[in-house]
Amino acid sequence: MTRRLFDLCGRDRNLRFSPYCWRAKMALAHKGLEFETVPTPFLGVAAIEPDVVRTVPVLDDHGIRVRDSFDIAVHLEHAYPDRAPLFAAADGIAAARFMESATFATLHPPIMRMIVKDIHDQLDDADQEYFRESRESRLGLPLEEAQQDVGLVSPELDKALAPLRRTLEFHPWLAGDEPGFVDYIPFGTLMWLAVIHGGLPIDPDDAVADWFGRCLDLHNGLARGARFAA
Amino acid sequence: MTRRLFDLCGRDRNLRFSPYCWRAKMALAHKGLEFETVPTPFLGVAAIEPDVVRTVPVLDDHGIRVRDSFDIAVHLEHAYPDRAPLFAAADGIAAARFMESATFATLHPPIMRMIVKDIHDQLDDADQEYFRESRESRLGLPLEEAQQDVGLVSPELDKALAPLRRTLEFHPWLAGDEPGFVDYIPFGTLMWLAVIHGGLPIDPDDAVADWFGRCLDLHNGLARGARFAA
Question: Domain GST N-terminal, which positions (chains A, B) (predicted)?
């Protein structure tokens, strides 16, 4: 096997929670490409390619190294043009970039407040130290204060999901009739929450919950088979 | 001329500020279609098609009535398939729906707080009464309290523009290499602000300001030629 994805992991090496790694895994599966994941703690990232790579995912595609989930998706689209498309023609890349930016701006902040301390608790000792220092510096708060009760943050998350919910009133997938990378972007972000929280704190009658369940089923249940925190 | 767009107007019938009407006008111009606008105050909307139409824009395309800016764009795409495409293939409609929903969720609230009283002041007497009653009921505040200083709301607007700004780092237009309806959606919303405020309160060095200026130039400067409040 010569296609490897470096995939962020917790102390339990089977706990894979990175939103960006989930986007990349779904993109690989969408293209029908076999790959193995390399469980990688935060402090293992520097070892992948010293002085170059600072974040996962990193894809090693038969010797071609690609980092950043978006760049990985674009690479796969160009390298495997005969497989199912990830983007709607050329213009679809701009639409996916907007989805990536909007997801980061609106979904990541409430989710971070739901799980930042719980992420910490899932890491190995060395990663815990690194994670606490870097995140507390970024957030300006101890992790114990930065994380809030999920029920308290839920209304904000529900509100941030409104554009997805609205789009799903008109289309079965965010990409239209078939799933695409614009689905995997917010799906990856919600997997981050679901894996760490042990489930998705969203009303099961919400159209977003239905779509999330259908994403879990995609590609032979790739994501449904993931380890979720107890 | 048998193609008419009912276009929201102020007391000055040349002041056209509706974000949705701007989206429709840009879509018509994008298709290279001639049209005349019918200046329509809020209270004139009911007269267009009693008991049916409650909002503008309404397009009368040779007798075919279409309301809602998004439905107008889809109608134009289907009715004039040989003209420049508004959407990137079929999947582009889902992407545009997400842009519409995200724009409504993130840009409309801060802009409303910047201009809601100023909109009122631009309406004729009958519209002022209708507008005050309906908006104060929706906002739960007198218009005078709902509107805040533009400088106070600017940081929130700047933050809400982050996904557009980020997308424009990678593509000249939100639709990719050429403008499309996903550009006209937030452009229409910013025209709403610019027409009422008399300009766009955004740093001219901001990539969003540059893109906005290029939108103003599109289609022979259709929007640049608009009346802006003094």
Answer: 8-84
